[in-house]
């Protein structure tokens, strides 16, 4: 069985991606783009990625970029558990890892407060010793 590697690149890094693909030579690869949808609905909760905004029942909150991206990542994959290091690398894209556990714990805590106020439930569950997952 083959191995899978997932890489993310910004549009401005297209040349870097091309060089990487060229260096792989004869290796088989598949390029898949996963753009953010204009709107993600989970039950009555709506996530608006282009505005970093969440909404339910006419009430909306605008989140910071990192908090919104964490929520969007978890909400697009309900029930899937993500490790803190996975969340950090996906949201902070290539940034030097600094206090990963504390950073993710802080943002999850703030997201839970906002979601609890907006929906009446925290929506993000801790999977002890593993990470976090979104629950509807």
From TrEMBL:
Q: Its GO biological process terms?
A: phosphorelay signal transduction system; regulation of DNA-templated transcription
User: Which keywords does UniProt give here?
Assistant: DNA-binding
Q: What PROSITE patterns does the record point to?
A: OMPR_PHOB
User: Does the keyword section mention Hydrolase?
Assistant: no
Q: Which residues bind DNA?
A: 37-136
Highest taxon in the source lineage: Bacteria
Q: Which GO terms describe its molecular function?
A: DNA binding
- UniProt keyword Plastid present: no
All copies of the OmpR/PhoB-type domain together span 37-136
- UniProt cross-references to Pfam families, sorted A to Z: Trans_reg_C
Q: What is this protein called?
A: Winged helix-turn-helix transcriptional regulator
């Amino acid at each position: 069985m083959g191995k899978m590697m997932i890489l993310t690149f910004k549009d401005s890094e297209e040349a870097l991606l091309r060089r990487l693909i060229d260096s792989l030579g004869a290796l088989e690869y598949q390029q898949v783009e996963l753009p953010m949808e204009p709107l993600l609905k989970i039950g009555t909760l709506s996530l608006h990625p282009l505005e970093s905004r969440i909404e339910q029942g006419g009430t909306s909150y605008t989140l910071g970029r990192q908090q919104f991206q964490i929520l969007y990542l978890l909400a697009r994959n309900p029930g899937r558990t993500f490790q803190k290091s996975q969340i950090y690398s996906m949201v902070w894209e290539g940034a030097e890892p600094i206090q990963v556990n504390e950073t993710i714990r802080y943002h999850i805590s703030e997201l839970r407060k906002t979601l609890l106020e907006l929906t009446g439930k925290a929506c993000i569950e801790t999977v002890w010793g593993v990470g976090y997952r979104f629950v509807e």
